[in-house]
Design a protein that fits this description.
Strand order of the largest sheet: 2-3-4-5-6-7
CATH superfamily: Aldolase class I
Distance between the termini: 32 Å
Structural class: alpha/beta
Order of helices and strands: HHHEEHEHEHEHHEHEHHHEHHE
Number of domains: 1
Shape: globular
Bound molecules: S-adenosyl-L-homocysteine
Strand content: 5-15%
Number of helices: 14
CATH class: Alpha Beta
Number of strands: 9
Largest sheet: 6 strands, parallel
């Protein structure tokens, strides 16, 4: 059997491993020397492309209404305990204004699947942001929609779209979602986004219920084949009002290792150390940055709605992850040798 270090070398060289070798590597991460080697290799590649620079994105959670009922998600439609809200165009522009002053040059508009935000409403919001902040990138993360809808958003000025594939295994997908949702449609949406020309982001939860090393290996192969510009991964964290309330949360270590592996799979990837990672353990986001992540998405939503966009329990909504505490985040990254930059933060071409 090849030593795990050799598998890491192959991954760094070839950017891909056969399914079984991915599994072997995943199963050897309990060994701290393997973890250390993996992280050192990922760090080398991240530095080659991005140096010690960390990009920031201002996250605006503009609606927690959702027509879907994903089993893991706290804002699923059947959770009647959620106090639902929608931000107006003016509210959203105000968030951008505030964010711009703080140094954000990318705004990420995220929501549940809320059909109030029709193609017309969204294109109006996007073109208003584009007019007011022509030097900024706009990212949308509002779930599945039609080709025509995505195309209209792109033509209105949206540059990027985040839609996690959630799992590359169709049977696993159906264990996480109601029958009204399908893996095929999710993947079709991702293909459409890419075809339209969005910088496209995908990803999955680490430790989601019924996930196995096999499905993770499939996720990694999916990411290699899809070649997204961004990958968002974070630990699954149970929400008390969902059917997965009593399921265990995902592992920090495995999340960190997967960040490093994804950096080796797509060397120039834009890779956030996510809020979920920051929620689960103190300093885990810094560990994510160490392991090869190069993006952080502080919350720019109005303070009075932050606690209402609760997709999982104890989501951090105060402290260093908030936009206001950017200077603190800057300091804590500075301490570990990383630098937050004021930049749109597009993907750097592969070389
Ligand atoms: N409606 C949008 C945005 C969903 S929220 C969409 O469908 O893309 C963004 C991501 O949060 C989801 O894709 C999911 O991977 C993650 N998420 C949802 N519930 C979670 C939980 N309980 N723990 C960790 N991550 C979760």
């Amino acid at each position: 059997m090849p030593k795990p270090e050799l598998l890491i070398d192959t991954l760094k060289d070839q950017h891909i491993l056969p399914h079984d070798d991915f599994k072997k590597l995943l199963n050897s991460l309990y060994d701290p020397t393997v973890m250390e080697y993996l992280i050192s290799q990922s760090d080398e590649i991240r530095r080659k492309y991005y140096g010690n620079k960390v990009y920031i994105r201002g996250l605006i959670e503009f609606s927690n209404y959702c027509k879907n009922d994903c089993f893991y998600c706290g804002i699923r439609k059947s959770n009647l305990n959620v106090s639902r809200y929608r931000l107006s165009k003016e509210d959203i522009l105000e968030c951008c204004n505030h964010g711009y002053e703080l140094g954000f040059r990318t705004f990420v508009l995220q929501s549940g699947e809320d059909r109030f935000f029709s193609t017309e409403v969204m294109t109006d919001i996007i073109s208003s942001i584009k007019n007011s902040f022509p030097d900024c990138a706009i990212t949308i993360s509002s779930g599945e929609n039609t080709y025509e809808h995505y195309l209209a958003l792109f033509n209105a000025g949206a540059n990027r779209y985040l839609l996690r594939h959630e799992t590359a295994n169709a049977a696993h997908y159906s264990q996480l979602h109601p029958p009204s949702m399908s893996w095929k449609n999710r993947i079709n949406c991702l293909n459409n986004l890419k075809k339209i020309g969005f910088q496209t982001g995908t990803g999955f939860m680490v430790g989601s219920p019924f996930q196995t090393m096999d499905t993770i290996a499939e996720d990694l192969l999916f990411i290699y084949n899809f070649q997204p510009q961004m990958v968002g991964i974070g630990p699954f964290i149970p929400h008390h009002d969902t059917i997965f309330a009593d399921m265990p949360h995902g592992s920090v270590n495995l999340t960190i290792a997967l960040l490093a592996m994804i950096r080796l799979i797509i060397p120039n990837i834009l890779l956030p150390a996510t809020t979920a990672l920051g929620t689960i353990a103190a300093k885990a986001r810094e560990a994510g940055i160490f392991a090869g992540a190069n993006v952080i998405m502080p919350n720019l939503s109005p303070i009075n709605v932050r606690k209402k966009y609760l997709i999982y329990d104890n989501k951090i909504a105060t402290g260093e992850e908030t936009a206001e505490s950017l200077s603190k985040l800057r300091e804590s990254l500075d301490k570990i040798g990383f630098e937050i930059v004021v930049a749109k933060g597009d993907i750097i071409p592969i070389f």
